């Protein structure tokens, strides 16, 4: 099963906010790429028989500025994330994602970033394919297209890029791909563990970057879900864990994280109540729409 062609956003992914479509203006930073490794955590394959099945779903998250500090931080921000997750443990899992973020700096015009990605991960977490496109002012500024394959003994991983230029890199060890990362995270939460550490590769940044991650797992939540879209769904009483995932430069887990993602992780792999901490500012992203789809059985 390969990557879907193009980056067509389904009709249910309305990328308008408060009745007006987000304007496209040139940003200084592409915050969509920063979010990619985090947003790919929003779905998880259920491979073990005692784990709740993966929930194919489509979701919308509306972004707003939660906190802003320092002279380089934006004075206002808004945006939207459109997320689509399908597949099975037999065919692999496909994630289609789009994030549009409009930032108002302390000086100058409002700036827009538009990041679109499609990824495929093998059910066993051995192979990964990815294509990521960043647009500025409606024009494509960067495309990352490649794949990664783990060795049979899990002692190494090879990365092959088609774009931005043909490149091959061999990595020692066996970093987790995003869905496999969360599969293990849910298993850790179900076992009552409070932390989870792993190296992760997701195709973001240069298409060759490996992250050190540290996840702090809280006790299962007992209050009603914060997201209205989940409160009104069949998931309202499902077990969930508040988690905080910090992403560090590879080999520098004791330094300051590049960014931190907080969210409620549900036992079926759906995530809500997003919080994206970039250091000098924080974006909050409650889920505003959720469409659950039937679980696809393996043939």
Q: If you average the pLDDT, what whole number results?
A: 83
The helix-and-strand class reads mainly beta
Total of domains = 1
How many β-strand runs?
Answer: 17
| Main β-sheet description | 15 strands, antiparallel
**Backbone shape:** globular
Describe the overall structure.
- Strand 8 (139-150) and strand 9 (156-163) form a beta hairpin.
- The chain has helices at 31-39, 178-190, 228-231; strands at residues 16-17, 20-21, 57-68, 76-88, 92-104, 111-121, 127-136, 139-150, 156-163, 167-172, 195-201, 210-217, 240-249, 259-266, 271-277, 281-285, 287-292.
- The protein has one domain (24-292).
- The protein is built from 3 helices and 17 strands.
- The protein is mainly β and 299 residues long.
- The model is unreliable at 1-12, 17-39 and 43-49 (pLDDT under 50).
- Helices cover 9% and strands 47% of the residues.
- The chain has a 15-stranded antiparallel β-sheet that branches.
- The longest helix is centred in the middle third of the chain and has 13 residues, at 178-190.
């Amino acid at each position: 099963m390969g990557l879907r062609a193009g980056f067509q956003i389904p009709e249910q992914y309305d990328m308008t906010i408060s009745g007006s479509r987000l304007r496209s203006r040139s940003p200084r930073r592409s915050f969509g790429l920063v979010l990619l490794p985090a947003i790919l955590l929003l779905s998880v394959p259920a491979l073990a028989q005692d784990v709740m099945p993966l929930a194919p779903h489509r979701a919308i998250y509306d972004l707003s500025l939660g906190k802003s500090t320092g002279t380089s931080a934006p004075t206002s921000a808004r945006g939207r994330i459109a997320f689509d997750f399908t597949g099975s443990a037999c065919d692999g899992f496909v994630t289609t994602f789009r994030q549009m973020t409009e930032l108002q700096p302390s000086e100058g015009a409002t700036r827009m970033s538009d990041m679109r990605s499609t990824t495929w991960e093998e059910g066993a977490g051995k192979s990964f394919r990815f294509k990521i496109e960043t647009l500025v002012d409606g024009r494509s500024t960067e495309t990352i297209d490649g794949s990664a394959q783990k060795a049979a003994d899990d002692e190494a991983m090879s990365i092959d890029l088609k774009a931005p230029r043909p490149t091959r890199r061999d990595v020692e060890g066996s970093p987790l791909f995003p869905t496999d990362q969360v599969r293990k995270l849910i298993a850790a939460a179900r076992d009552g563990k409070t932390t989870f550490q792993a190296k992760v590769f997701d195709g973001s940044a240069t298409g060759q970057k490996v992250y050190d991650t540290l996840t702090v797992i809280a006790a299962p939540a007992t209050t009603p879900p914060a997201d209205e879209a989940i409160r009104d769904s069949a998931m309202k009483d499902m077990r969930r864990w508040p988690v905080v995932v910090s992403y560090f430069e590879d080999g520098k887990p004791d330094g300051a994280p590049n960014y931190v993602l907080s969210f409620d992780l549900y036992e079926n792999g759906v995530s809500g109540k997003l919080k994206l901490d970039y250091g000098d500012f924080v974006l909050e992203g409650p889920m505003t729409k959720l469409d659950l789809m039937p679980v696809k059985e393996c043939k």
